[in-house]
Structures are given as structure tokens and as C-alpha cells.
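User: Predict Probable serine/threonine-protein kinase drkB's structure from this.
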Amino acid sequence: VLQGLSHLHSLKPAIIHGGLNENNVLISSREVAKITDFGNSFLATPILPSAAKRPLLEYMPPEVMRRDRCNEKVDIFSLGHLTLYIMNQQKPHLILGPTFEEQGKLIARSEVERRANHLEKMARQLDGGNTHPLSAIVTNCLSDDKDLRPSCKNILRSDFFTNPFDGNIQNAVVHPTGLTLGQGEYGKVLEVRYKTKTYAAKKYHLYPTHSSSLTPVMRMIKMRHPNILPYYGMCKLATDGSKVLVMRRIQINLTISLQRSMKLPKKVEVLNDVANGLHFLHNQTPAIIHRNLTANNVLLDVNGMARISDFADSSIVASLIHGTEDYMSPEALEGKEHNDRMDTFAFGHLSVYVIIQHRPVHLECSEHEVGGKVILRTEVERRKYHLDEMKSKL
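Assistant:
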């Protein structure tokens, strides 16, 4: 829901839903929330929406009740109320006073205060009466002053949504379970435990120590997108104190999934997820180039949604990454200057592989520069014809 609202509010001009509640949040078969019912929506202008475009009474923010000027913070108030309802599935009971006008233009100040007290009580009761990390967020969302309510982007950047480590990610110590989840050219992936949960952690063979080298990594840790594997931060292994990049643990990658039964509509759905993830990475400022997109680093979560992984490698070991040769673009193979279009080439190659589940045979070339920067032009041409042949079979 936050991602959806954030998208609406980021448009120019921003679109305000104006009627967000549990009845117009739909859940897809993949358990993805979709905001609907934009009949109450209006463009972000500092005016009050018409009477026909006011949210449900129990979701109505104070400025609407008072007939004050409104902006996108109307939705933030409704979001706070929706969060309370989701967490303890209970709505506050409104006690309407005699000063409620027929046109719904005003609810008495005393009613606003009564409801504010009731909502604060509900916030304290979240999670069975314990202090819940969402309490501060909900309290701010339900602020009587709309200027004090956070934006969707600020909520998404909060520690609660960006990592599970209580904000102390750089000092966190994780304990390896002894299970190695995978191993590649640049490092190996371990299963680690932090508090009561298990995560995946990548330990690099060559790890940069200069702070400037880690700046892009820290930026990635804050990024959240449904088709990007969440990275939580750099932690220390309890065994030897070495640095590891901790991320969400998803066991199944696309290569394994394709070996099982996957029908064409599902394949197209997965490719759509990957395209959305790449679009998100390439639209960062500056753009993030994956450099090594393959079926092995596209993971499928329990809902079948594809998530791109290993994009952090592009920053941690960018000077070393050449990519998987079968997926590399000609300009990268020849050592020429390249940009995010090398990911587009890899996506085309991935699409061919996913659809027909056949990878072109890589023709080894004996003549190449040390370091793998160049494969002879003849090899590039041979592969081009081979890919064209594969495309014709689609």
C-alpha cells in the first residue's frame, strides 16, 4: 500500500486517493496489495475536495472535518488509520455530536479531540499492548497537524521498513549456521542467524575497505522494490569478525524453477517482474547497472514473485565484474565503454533462455586479452547469429 501511495504522490501533479480504506485495497493471487477505487481521487491542489470526494468518516483527517485546505497528507492520515485496523483489526467507535452539519462540513473540535485520544490508545495497544515499532510511525501519520505527518517516501526509508536490525546494522554481529547457500566467483553466500531469524549473507573474497567504495552499497541498503532482493546492511561474522552483506534469504532461483514445470504465462510474469526491477535500478540517480543479470541471480519468493539479486556486486567489485560471458553485451566483451544497456542485452538473452529453456552453446575462443576484457570480434559475430537463430524459434 505504501509503494502504491508513494507512486501516486510522486506523479506531477500528485494524485491523492482521497478515500483509502480496507475496502479498496485488493489482494492478488500472489498476495500483492493493489490500491483501487480511484473515484474519490483528485489532483494535489491546496483546496478541500468536494463533498463527494471525502474519505469514509472514520478515516477522515481533521483538516477535512474542519474544511481546511488539503494536500496528499489526507492519504497519510488514512494510511495511519488503516495500519491500526490491519494490526489489531479494530476500528474506533465514533461518537458524533449535535454540531455535525448535514453537509458534513464540520465535526466539532471536541469530537476531533475524542477521536485523537482513541486513536492514540489504539496505537499503544498494538501488538497486544507491547511497544510496537510501528507505533511511532502511526502516531505521526495521525498527527492533527498535516505538516507533521511523514511522506510515503520517508516512511519507506524508516528503519522499520528498511532493515530488521533496530537501526544498529553496522554494529550487528550475525552468527553463521554452518550452511553454505552458494558460492561464486566473487564470494560465497552463507546462512546466518540474527536474533530469532535466519538470513543470507555474502562474504566477498576481496572486500573494499575505503569508505567511498561502500557509499553505493549503503545507498542500495535503503532501496526497496517488490522485484529487488532486500539488502539489510554490512554486518560482522561472529566467528572471525569479517564483513558480510546481509540480505533476505530466498532459496529458489530461476534456473532451478525452470527445471520444474513452469508454464508460458508464468514465464512471462517472471520476465515482467525482472523488467520492473531493472527499470527501478536504472532509474536511480546515478543509475545502478547490474552487470551480471542471469537466471541464477533471479530469485523467486514464496509467492512466485521474481526478485533480482546480486546487484550489490556491481558496486562492491565493479572493477572485477565482467559478467557471465553468455549474457555479456558485445561492447562489454570488446572492452568498450558501456552503460545500463548492457543489462538490456542480458535481459534479452535471459528472455530467450526462459521462454525456450535453451542456452546457446558458448564457442570458446583461444585468443583473448588477459583479464577477459575482449573476446575476438569473430566470436561476437558467431554468437549474434546463434542468438538470431534462437529468436526465430520463439
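The chain is about 35% helix and 15% strand.
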